[in-house]
Automatic annotation (TrEMBL):
SUPFAM superfamilies: Composite domain of metallo-dependent hydrolases (SSF51338), Metallo-dependent hydrolases (SSF51556). Catalyzes the hydrolytic cleavage of the carbon-nitrogen bond in imidazolone-5-propanoate to yield N-formimidoyl-L-glutamate. It is the third step in the universal histidine degradation pathway. GO terms for cellular component: cytoplasm. The gene is hutI. This is Imidazolonepropionase.
Length: 542
């Protein structure tokens, strides 16, 4: 795995610790970790006792199989999973577990779920491997989930975790009736420019730990609170400590030094800045020196723009197209903030430029949905492709023919996902869009957190799932798919968001017998990332 993927190498809560916490709260025996008597360690982990396994795959044993369609979870009851290193090796019914994984071992676990049902499980002693093999091969690590549900780790494809300052007062004002217009971004810019890289990294790490404790194993992180050359580069360096899914968002808002209407001073930012030009000058800065620095340092995989004609702080269609075209020509993948405050050109620009995702989607029109659906014609979402993994040549932000060819291959395989951000509507009192419209139009959907200091200070994907089910028309199965497989599609990844042979062993464990409890028990911390390493190590800070 890429060392920056915080999901596993940078795990923060071991499964043993999480099980211990669950046991304390519920008075149960919880997950049973089999003690390994051998002094040697094995790189094989066998997970059994899975009451319900969500795979999101039509053929979990086929590494080339596509993802299931939205809402079809590929559920296997009474399942087992075998992991070698950090890659899934086998998936299926526990009774079909191949002989080579049936080491001599007796599991015993007692669990009590939230409904009070007490369930006792005891595995029979399996066939043993021959004695010669036992002397030369370390026993695998074994985890008995005692009837709990397991699903792919949540894939949060839209977040703004690297920032300084606080904007809780804005949330309070919105709850009192003030309308959001995008201006608060400049307050965060002022605080973020003043913060050191280590200060920003400490806050980001705390938020990542929160997200992981709720089942998120992959997280995209955007810049966008620097809005000048050195500070945008600073934010991308911080993000690179934690994830390979990094987005350059120089086109987040027009900073105050390029806003002559207030003579270089924006009261909401809390500072006065020298007047450096107008918004056209800022667009040229993003496309020139800022993008040069981003490409030179090589931390960003993606570029994004806040395309929102309804906000005086964001960018119109022409400005958006100019910035994203420049980024695309330099080898970055494309993402778009679109249709948040009203109908606009963002979704159609995303389709035109081959963007991986258009995000927010609060006010998508029928024409927008038709354009998005057209990008998926003749494509098979989530089929295995080497260039869709985290080592994608796009990540190098180079301009070589090989990189351009790989980017074109991704565009041929993937269309543009409609990514919805349910907790933003909750936090801004915007109307909840009906996500069923996208599904009916044939558009793959994703659910992400949009964790940021202004419009949604929540990194909880289970919370977003509950909102999508209660307010946005989704079934629980559709919402779970959107937060796992859909998020992977939005990042053009086929190695996450699914549980199948060859995929990453990134799992979310539900302390309940069914994935439905994620929405059935809103606000209750029953979902967390399953750390197969059994350790609690902070992300590498260098």
């Amino acid at each position: 795995m890429n060392e920056r993927e915080y999901g596993h190498e940078h795990g923060h809560e071991s499964a043993a610790q999480n099980a211990s916490a669950s046991n304390t709260a519920g008075g149960t025996d919880g997950v049973n970790w089999d003690a390994v008597s051998s002094a040697a360690s094995s790189n094989i982990t066998i997970i059994t006792g899975i009451g319900q396994l969500v795979t999101n795959c039509v053929e979990p044993l086929n590494a080339n199989a596509p993802m299931t369609p939205v809402g079809q979870l590929g559920v296997i009851e009474q399942a087992a999973v075998v992991v070698r290193g950090e890659i899934i090796e086998w998936v299926g019914r526990e009774r079909d577990l191949p002989t080579e994984y049936r080491y001599s071992c007796r599991h015993h676990a007692v669990t009590e779920f939230g409904n009070g049902t007490r369930e006792r499980t005891e595995a029979t002693e399996a066939d043993t491997i021959n004695e010669a093999s036992k002397r030369t091969t370390a026993e695998p690590r074994r985890i008995d989930l005692a009837g709990r549900a397991l699903l792919p780790g949540f894939v949060d494809s839209h977040s703004h975790l690297v920032f300084g300052g606080d904007r809780g007062d804005e949330f309070e004002a919105r709850m009192g009736g003030q309308q959001y217009d995008g201006g608060g971004i400049l307050r965060t810019v002022h605080a973020t420019r003043a913060a050191s890289e280590d200060m920003l990294a400490d806050r980001a790490l705390a938020l990542l730990r929160e997200a992981r404790a709720q089942g998120t194993t992959t997280m995209e992180i955007k810049s966008g609170y620097g809005l000048d050359v050195p500070n945008e580069a600073k934010l991308l360096r911080v993000a690179a400590r934690f994830t390979p899914e990094i987005t350059f968002l120089g086109g987040h808002a027009v900073p105050e030094e390029y806003r002559p209407a207030q003579a270089g001073h924006d009261a909401r930012s809390g500072s006065s800045a020298p007047h450096l030009g107008d918004r056209d000058d800022y667009v040229r800065l993003v496309c020139g020196p800022m993008l040069d620095a981003v490409v030179r340092e090589g931390n960003a995989r993606w570029s994004d723009v806040f395309c929102e004609p309804h906000s005086p702080y964001a960018f119109d269609g022409d400005e958006t197209r100019t910035m994203l075209t420049a980024a695309r020509q330099r080898g970055l993948g494309i993402r778009v903030h679109g249709a948040q405050l009203g109908p606009g050109p963002g979704a159609r620009i995303a389709c035109e430029l081959g963007a991986a995702s258009v995000d927010h989607c609060t006010f998508l029109t029928d024409d927008d949905l038709d354009a998005l659906a057209a990008t998926w014609l003749g494509k098979q979402p989530g089929a295995w492709c080497e260039t869709s993994a985290e080592a994608s040549p796009e990540a190098s932000a180079a301009t070589s023919p090989e990189t351009q060819s790989a980017a074109s291959a991704l565009e041929r395989q993937y269309g543009t996902v409609a990514t919805y951000l349910p907790a933003v509507e909750f936090s801004t009192k915007q109307p909840y869009p009906d996500m069923r419209r996208a599904i009916a139009a044939g558009v793959p959907i994703a659910i992400a957190s949009d964790c940021n200091p202004g419009t949604c200070f929540s990194d909880s994907i289970p919370f977003a799932i509950a909102i999508a089910v209660r307010e946005m028309g989704l079934t629980i199965a559709q919402a779970v798919w959107a937060a796992t497989a859909g998020g992977a599609l939005a990042l053009r990844r086929s190695d996450i968001g699914v549980i199948r042979a060859g995929a990453k062993a990134y799992f979310a464990l539900v302390d309940a017998p069914s994935y439905a409890h994620i929405a059935y028990r809103p606000g209750v911390p029953i979902t967390h990332a399953l750390d197969l390493g059994g350790h609690d190590q902070p992300p590498h800070r260098g």
